[in-house]
Every structure is written in C-alpha cells, then in structure tokens.
Design a protein that fits this description.
Elements lengths: L16 E2 L4 E7 L4 E7 L4 E8 L4 E7 L4 E5 L9 E6 L4 E8 L6 E7 L7
Parallel strand pairs: 1-3
Antiparallel strand pairs: 2-9, 3-8, 4-7, 4-9, 5-6, 5-8
C-alpha cells in the first residue's frame, strides 16, 4: 500500500491557520509546500518567532495584508529560521514557513514566543 503525507496547513494567506499568541505548533513541509499561520498579537514587545527540528526552514513575518515585515533563513539553531521583531498588541500578523528550497520536506515546530526584554 502506498502512503502519502497530506498537506497540514494552508498554502496562502486566505487559508492561514489561526494560532494563539504565544504558541507552539507542530508542522510538516511536503514538496513545494508553504505553511501560513495567522495570529493577533496579545502584547506589545520584542518577539521571537523561530522553528526547531531537522528541517531547513525559511520564515517570513507578514502584516495582515501579506506585506513582508521580516524574513530569515538560518538565524536559529542549525538550519532553522529565527525572526526577532517588535509586535504591537491587537495587530494581526501572518507567519509563513517554507523550506529553504521547494524540495525541502520534513517536520518542524513553530514557536511564537512571549515578549522578551531587549538585550
């Protein structure tokens, strides 16, 4: 019997999966996949958005209309992405997680952290 992995989260802004702020969400990238997540910032402050796992991720932080605010490839541990950005309470943001290339597949965990103190 053949077994195929199905897409777990929406591939565009309209299909963005709602997540809580803060949160930890497990995802999986299949070939040519992008996962979109939508959240409303619960608090104003510097935030860390990153992935963990063995998949080479690339992350984008977008405003509610889909305009890119920040992006990162390998700023996190190993080949994981990490974005630190000031968010504003009550504003809706979108996180896009994709593989470094369209051929990258595998599991990852997305972390949307609590506000952090600036160093």
């Amino acid at each position: 019997a053949s077994c195929s992995i199905e897409d777990d989260f929406g591939n565009d802004i309209d299909g963005a999966h709602a997540i809580q702020d803060p949160s930890t969400t497990e995802g999986n990238l299949i070939e040519d996949d992008m996962d979109f997540f939508r959240f409303t910032a619960a608090a104003t402050g510097l935030r860390q958005i990153h992935t963990t796992g063995g998949t080479d991720t690339y992350c984008h932080l977008l405003d509610g209309q889909g305009n890119q605010i920040a992006a990162d490839d390998d700023g996190g541990e190993m080949t994981n992405c990490e974005i630190q950005h000031e968010l504003t309470a009550g504003v809706t943001y979108i996180i896009k997680v994709r593989g470094f290339s369209t051929r990258v597949t595998g599991d990852y965990t997305l972390h949307l952290g609590e506000p952090v103190e600036a160093p």
